[in-house]
Amino acid sequence: MATLNIVGAGHVGRALGRLFAAGGAFQVQDVLTRSLSSAREAVAFIGAGVAVADHARLRPADFTMLAVGDDQIGVACQALAAAVPLRGGVVFHCSGALASDQLHAAASAGALVASVHPIRSFADPAAVAAHFGGTFCGIEGDAGALALLEPALLALGARPVTIDAAGKTLYHAAAVFASNYLVTVLDAALRAYQAAGIPEALARELAQPLVSETVANVFKLGPARALSGPIARGDLAAVERQRRAVSAWDGASGALYEALVAPTTELARRKRAIS
Question: CA–CA distance from 203 to each of 57, 190, 196, 229 (Å)?
């Protein structure tokens, strides 16, 4: 069985380590984190591997997963390449924002490099490990690395999706739009309801069916057909009244409202074009 070293064992590293070990894709060998105690905790969670204190203690492995923060990928890779023979092996990181070219130190040392980004929240590693089937994973990198990693991911029940390394930043921004900024927009909506005199708990209850139906329509019909409201109707006078009211209530929310007018107008144009 191919061996796997894990460098960085936070939520992502622990969950994937447990999955790879339990699924038989890899034999988890050495686990390195910022401290020996946290490495031991990670090994206990994963159920396999040996905790090590520094890069010099890592044994050569067929695969090495860097599950460190984005700002540490280059540094960790350089330290790895300086300490462990990598030629003929595969080194991959788990960042959604950075491409595999961040692993140039490993590539220069003769390794194949790639990135594997599971598209989900890892707030609860145990829950992720228990319910990973169907998880999409954005993958890119050397063809040889992907040819070896894709079967391992499929064995976990994952759904690998090949992405363009040059578009990695846009790929990650898409997730930010779909998740993080969606929360921001909904927060503005709930606060606006409250500013109009609706208590917070009732505001959430009131908004939920509207949000749920809208999101369902987006994925059923597509964004253009799902769009409704004053811009879709061409009621620009109502849009301007709302813009002024929101700006008078809260400047940041007013700027957000105004910033969304132009892309929503373009979406309305696309809706008319297919109607």
Answer: 55, 6, 10, 19
Radius of gyration for the chain, computed over Cα atoms and rounded to the nearest angstrom: 23
Tokens of 186: 């909904």
Count of residues in the chain: 275
pLDDT in tens, 23-58: 999 999 999 999 999 999 999 999 999 999 999 999
Q: Distance between CA 98 and CA 117 in Å, rounded?
A: 10
Q: Cα-flanking dihedrals φ and ψ of residue 159, to 5°?
A: -120, 90
pLDDT < 70 stretches in the chain: none
CA distance 66 to 12: 10
Nearest to 8 by CA among 46, 43, 37, 39: 39
Q: For 163, how many CA atoms within 13 A lie in the half-sphere containing its CB?
A: 28
Q: What is the pTM of this model?
A: 0.87
228-260 in b/e form (b: 16+ CB < 10 A) is eebbbeeeeeebeebeeebeeeeeebbebbeee
CB atoms near residue 90 (< 10 Å): 26
Question: Which residues partner with 51 through β-bridges?
Answer: 31
Distance, in Å, from the CA atom of 140 to the CA atom of 152, rounded to the nearest integer, reads 15
Q: What is the DSSP letter of 275?
A: -
Which of helix, strand or coil describes residue 35? coil
Residues 44-71: b if buried by 16+ CB within 10 A, e if exposed: ebbebbbbbeebeebeebbbbbbbbeee
Bridge-based pairing state of the strands 90-93 and 50-52? unpaired
